[in-house]
Amino acid sequence: MSSRIFTTAECAPNVCRAVMNELLTNNAKLYALRYQVEIGEALGSGKDGIVLVGKSNIFQADVAIKMHRFAELYHREKNAYERLRSLEVSKVSGFSVPELLRVDDELQVIEMTIVQRPFVLDFAAAYLDVRPEFPDEVWAEWEADKREQFEEHWPKVRAILDAFEAFGIYLTDISPANIGFEL
Question: Is pLDDT of 105 > 80?
Answer without folding.
Answer: yes
